[in-house]
Design goal:
By secondary structure, this protein is α+β, with helices and mostly antiparallel strands. The chain has eight helices and 16 strands. 25% of the residues lie in helices and 27% in strands. The strands form five sheets. The chain has a six-stranded antiparallel β-barrel with strand order 11-14-13-12-15-16. Strands 8-7-10-9 form a four-stranded mixed β-sheet, with no helix packed on it. A two-stranded parallel ribbon has the order 1-2.
Length: 356
């Protein structure tokens, strides 16, 4: 129970379904006052109090489990290390993988519980993870790192309900969190300033901003402050010759070089992704046509995927833009999750010359 409306309503629903339920709030910060307060995030002392009050209204036992050290190691330090390596991580995905459905589930099963129930918007049908009924709230992308064994011990009671109806239900149940705003951004960055947070963690690491020809256009204080596809905040003194906006096309952490260029330079047609997890199917023996989502709340692309040693290759049927290394590539068959992997490399469309 995070202290929000979703987990509180999910808990109430599983009680109504006849399950024996215990509410658990995760203490994730080693210094709670340094995490967000108010409505801008989660993992705060205020959230713990809201979760406890919701458990009291529902009538279930409530405990706080201290996961701060593991969260710091597996989520916060991973977040910093990924940016330092020129990649763009998704900390919510990593928290689901390492904390909620590894550390918490392992402890719950050891204590004799059968499953972990959360307020995520997703559905499980016949042991397969599916998208939520509310496409605007669907969270199957950040849950696609779960194994089929973990999914067999998971429950997502809100997956068939639009968010507006969840809030209305919470109000009818007398839950004070019914109108509490949703959390946003990265919960462990108190002011929402990711670049500032990374600077404190990694220090200044000056480098150059160059165009595709290698011409120097400007300087920066840390390549970790950029992500592929970024347009704002480039702070270059040299305008583009054609007057069009420029975007971050590549980040080279060793030389600390950030390459920028036109929007079409972001086009990607082939992806190599590592550490695959096959959530809803066996690893494909042959190339398979399916759909792929390349970032949270991003669009879905038709593709063909196949195994390449310990990695998977994904060939997009049409180019996609702004594909960042470190993000997840989640494969779908309709609304059913097939599996996921971490984007490790991308390649651009191959130009074909007409020599007639």
């Amino acid at each position: 129970m995070s202290g929000g409306v979703d987990s509180a309503t999910a808990a109430a629903r599983v009680v109504d379904a006849g399950h024996e339920v215990t509410g658990v709030h995760l203490a994730l910060s080693r210094h709670p006052s340094s995490y967000r307060t108010g409505a801008r995030g989660c993992c705060t002392l205020e959230d713990a109090r809201d979760a406890r009050r919701a458990a009291d209204v529902i009538g279930i036992p409530f405990y706080v489990w201290d996961m701060a050290e593991r969260f710091h190691r597996d989520v916060v330090e991973d977040f910093v290390a990924e940016y330092a390596a020129g990649r763009t991580p998704n900390p919510c995905l990593r928290c689901n993988e390492k904390i909620k459905f590894a550390a918490v589930l392992d402890k719950a099963l050891a204590l004799g519980f059968d499953a972990v129930c959360t307020g995520h918007y997703a559905r499980i049908r016949d042991g397969i993870l599916h998208r939520a009924a509310d496409p605007g709230k669907d969270q199957s992308y950040v849950l696609a790192v779960l194994t089929s064994e973990q999914i067999s011990h998971a429950m997502f009671p809100l997956g068939d309900t639009p968010k507006a109806q969840v809030r209305a239900e919470a109000g009818r149940r007398g839950l004070a969190v019914a109108d509490k705003p949703d959390s946003h951004d990265v919960c462990f960055i108190a002011d929402g300033d990711t670049r500032g947070f990374l600077t404190k963690q990694l220090g200044a690491a000056p480098g150059q901003i160059v165009d595709q020809s290698g011409a120097v256009l400007g300087e920066h204080d840390g390549a970790y402050g950029f992500t592929v596809g970024q347009r704002r905040g480039l702070r270059m003194g040299t305008p583009a010759g054609d007057g069009k906006p420029r975007y971050v096309l590549d980040i080279e952490p060793v030389t600390r070089t950030v390459t920028v260029g036109p929007a079409e330079g972001l086009d990607v047609t082939e992806i190599t992704a590592s550490r695959p997890v096959w959530t809803g199917c066996a690893p494909p023996a042959e190339p398979e046509d399916c759909l792929v989502q390349l970032r949270a709340h991003g669009e879905v692309h038709p593709c063909t995927t196949w195994l390449d040693g310990d990695a998977i290759r994904i060939r997009l049927h049409h180019p996609a833009r702004g594909v960042a290394k470190g993000q997840a590539a989640v494969l779908y068959d309709g609304d059913a999750v097939l599996g996921s992997a971490t984007i490790a490399a991308t390649s651009a469309p191959v130009a074909v010359l007409d020599r007639r």
